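Researcher: I need the complex structure. Ligand is flavin-adenine dinucleotide. Inputs:
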Amino acid sequence: MFDFTMTPEQKKLRDEARDFTRWVPKEMILAMDAEQIQFPHEYLREAGRRNLLGIRLPKEYGGRGLTWVDDSIVAEEIGVASYSLACLWGVGADIVCEAIMLFGTEELKQEVVVPLLRGEVYAAEGLTEPRGGSDFFGATTVAKKDGDDWIINGQKRFIVGAEGADWFLVYAVTDPAGPPHRRMTAFMVPRTAGVESKYIYGLMGVRGGGAGRVIFNDVRVPERYALNGINGGFDVFVRMMIPERLGTAAMTIGSVRPAIEIATRYTSRRKAFGQPIKNYQAVGFKVADCVLALDAARSMVYTTCLAVDSGSVHPGRVRRMVSQSKKFVTEAAWDIANNCMQAVGGIGYTNIFPLERIVRDIRLSMIWVGTNEIMEMIIQNEWYKEYEKVLSKEPVRDVEDDAANATQSDEKVYE
Ligand SMILES: Cc1cc2nc3c(=O)[nH]c(=O)nc-3n(C[C@H](O)[C@H](O)[C@H](O)COP(=O)(O)OP(=O)(O)OC[C@H]3O[C@@H](n4cnc5c(N)ncnc54)[C@H](O)[C@@H]3O)c2cc1C
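Model: Output:
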């Protein structure tokens, strides 16, 4: 986030997050990238020890009761060390715990949120299935009632932290005949009999974060572990779009920021044809464009955080702003990572610099927590609804009438 917008408390918070990011051992980052580590328990324990997990959640459950602006300040710094670590930092504490805080029982808050924010347990989020992730309504994992319990059968895939998770937030069909918005339930499922995780993917980047397949084979879960009640899963899913996507936008800014710093230093020192390559506009403008894109991305995230924090912006508009932030930031980050590698040249393609890891990691950001095509669909839907219902009724000058022949209504043919 921009330092000139920060209060002294926010600067202190940022410095705490920076200190934590400096703590991350280089060996951990490299071992995760080499998949010698499959789940960095130590990282989450340290984050918990420093009270840097779930900082928006209430203090009595271990959070700090802070805002989205604060969360994004921290997320940006957390993203700097590694995208994989940032994903784990966000999924358990910012996504699953928020779902429990908003929709769960006191028992789940005590059993999951409190130890998770201390870094002692981890919870993964399971939406995506082998037959499709974008199509939430097409889930085939089912839960059938058996006495006071529900029996879950099905599979989820690409689940970040599956290897280390003690709990899973799982969406399952509980009323196959019900309308799309009332047929699914979000269950908190402990790692219990019938839950199996498989670490099987050769990921391009974001490695070492335990992303795997999770299989549920006759898993018995009490009904009180359902968030927002039976068949209330859609509301949980919609609400979780905020932490999933705004959190991703904020941490992506941090993960790509080092690419600009590396490229700036390198192009200032590296000489070709007798002078530093930053003096050639083809190189210097590339880096300048990256700086511009990052500042624009950060501005968008900051504004969206303010909108969410205000609590007074219409949920549809919030959905649009969050989706815009996710799409804009992640596409900007991808361009930035590539342009920084280009500005550095051949050595940027090697593991002498971490640029190649940043490029591999950042690529995920356009795919996960909803692809950017899905973001575009949401932006389109929400914009047309908002325009028709709200913006078109505002008392602003109608510039359509300012054309010389605007009154020739016969020429305005729409069908
Ligand atoms: C490393 C990694 C970590 C992940 N972590 C998690 C996690 O922790 N939890 C979790 O639940 N999921 C996770 N995911 C899954 C991720 O969110 C999905 O991969 C993503 O939502 C897309 O789903 P899909 O892969 O099934 O692609 P599909 O849904 O099959 O989509 C394929 C393509 O079709 C496009 N498409 C689909 N429908 C439409 C449409 N209506 N209009 C336009 N285009 C469309 C998509 O944009 C995409 O380009 C992770 C994925 C990866 C790779």
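Model: Summary of the prediction. Residues 91, 124-128, 132-135, 158-160, 203, 206, 211, 364, 367-371, 373-374, 377 surround flavin-adenine dinucleotide (CB under 6 Å).
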